[in-house]
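Protocol step 4 of 5: obtain the predicted structure for the target chain.
Materials: sequence only (see below). No template structures provided, no constraints applied. The aim of this step is simply to have a reference model before the mutagenesis design in step 5. Sequence pasted as it appears in the construct record:
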Amino acid sequence: MALRAGVSESLISQIERNKVSPSIDTLLTISEILDIDFEYLFREYKKEQLITVIHEEERRQISIGGISYEQLSIIHDKDEEHAIEAFMISINPGEMRGEKHYGHRGKELGVILEGTGRLHYGNRVYELKQGDSVSFSSISPHTLINTGTEVLRAFWVATPPRMEFVEG
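Step 4 output (structure tokens):
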């Protein structure tokens, strides 16, 4: 790379380790050698990035039976490949969230904040308590059941988003 770009190996090493910033000429040369579109390198630079703040009193909520969902955040993506949503789940004792017979595309991550529960994932069963976390591919059927006597509260993240929230 250094020979083709007409610079020292030391300079290439320093650029790779983010110790120095190359000149525009050197950057152009390196991008040509690597066959990287120069515009690609600067596409996101100085572009206004979307930041969403949802204040606690403004969170959207939905209740379905003995389960309530409180949307904490949703990040959309043009092609939904990197879209995610985060929400709080409250499950009343004995109630179940999820589907026994089918899964869906995506991935999920949950943290049990209060209470105890049982996660059924495919043919496996996992006992969960306060402080436990779980992550999995959503493709297998999965359910979360509150096995305790108090409300089970969990922080949950899903990608891609699945919940349709309405003001509540």
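Step 4 remarks: The beta strands are 61-64, 67-75, 84-91, 96-99, 107-114, 116-121, 124-129, 133-137, 142-146, 152-159. The chain has two domains: 2-42, 56-159.
Proceed to step 5.
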